[in-house]
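Hi R.,

Here's the chain you asked about this morning:
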Amino acid sequence: MTSPFHPTNWSQACASWIHEIQIAFDPPTPVELGKGGLLRLMRWSTPRVATLVLLSFTLHCTRPPVSIVSTRTARDGRASSDAQPYIEEGIASWYGGNDDGFAGRPTASGEIFDPEQYTCAHRTLPLGTFVEVENLDNHKRTVLRVNDRGPFIKNRVLDLSKRGAQELGFLGQGTSRIRLRSVDAMGLPTTLDLGADQSDPYVVQVASLSDAKNIDSLTRELENTFGVVTLQSAITRRGLSVKRVRVGSYSTRQDAEQAAEKIAKLLKDRGVEPFITRQR
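And here is the predicted structure, written out as tokens:
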């Protein structure tokens, strides 16, 4: 059933009203302008003026409804028409092969890693973030969800699941140049508040070590200058058990970057290249 507020019904109602009003008027007697006085002039002009007013009202009633354009808002509730999605380019790798041992292990989010799911690992993006990833060599695209941390290898920005690498067509070659941008669950570009999750602060990962003496020595040295040092247990692709030596707990990336620069200067002669990641 058509709504009584539908424009078609408005048009019919207005047309009926015009018809009824026109019936109520007596046919005007022809009047020669300038004769008959003011009263006869008013009788001659009133029906015509009324008709013009009603015609204008009818056009207004039948005008198509105004469409409302949705505007994406920032997390603080303010309109953000010029905000841009998070975009990053670099080298991506993949994990979840038959011999790397990652399948079935817990990810940083607590999920069990399934190489056949559309997921990925990123060092700093909030867990649960959706990203559209494009292979810059063949322009294939897919949408993945961040549920893990990594890659912990120099000059790489993203670790894709086996399924993700398959979709982007670089499963056989191991790595590829990619561009990622933040999207929503429907795959539409969206802004990203990198500091929204204060429960998962930034940390500076200094090294991954397996030798207990080296771990203790580096930990004491860093504690003297930077305070809190944490150790995170991990297993490498080769199955080696290591400790990730990490410094600090920073609410902003800027603070973490400043700490990373200081650590790099302190350890510059040891080949250490600290990078920023998240606590989990």
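One quick note: Residues 1-8, 21-25, 59-82 have pLDDT under 50 and may be disordered.

Cheers,
M.
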